[in-house]
Amino acid sequence: MPPIYKALATHFRNRIRFAFVNIEGSSSEDLAKDFEVEKWPTLLVQNQFATPDSDGDKHHVFDGKMKLPEMIEFVAPFALAEDQKKEERVIQSKS
User: What ranges do the domains of the chain cover?
Assistant: First the structure.
């Protein structure tokens, strides 16, 4: 995982979940199609509250420069507030 994504995940620790998809993985083409990803790298936020009947977008794609301050600004509205942090959970990655 690139250091900038690690820094972003650390900044929002326990406030939003992150996943990193390696484009060389076997399922990357399917994921790219499902999430309408056209270029790499891409940062997107999946909106868990959007439904097919709602006007909310299912996901939001970051279109700025891949710089940490800009990425933090993009992700912040989707993250829990500091006082709403979830308890520590460790999710093991698949090999």
Answer: 3-82
Specify the DSSP class assigned to residue 66: S
Count other C-beta atoms under 10 Å from residue 25's C-beta.
11
Q: Regarding beta strands 59-61 and 44-46, do their DSSP bridges make them parallel or antiparallel, or are they unpaired? A: antiparallel
pTM: 0.74
pLDDT at 16 over 60: yes
DSSP H/E element including 59: strand 59-61
3-state secondary structure of 45: strand
67 band by pLDDT with thresholds 50, 70 and 90: very high
CB 68 within 8 Å of CB 7: yes
Q: How far apart are the C-alpha atoms of 55 and 61, rounded to whole Å?
A: 17
Distance CA 68, CA 70 (A): 5
Amino acid at 16: I
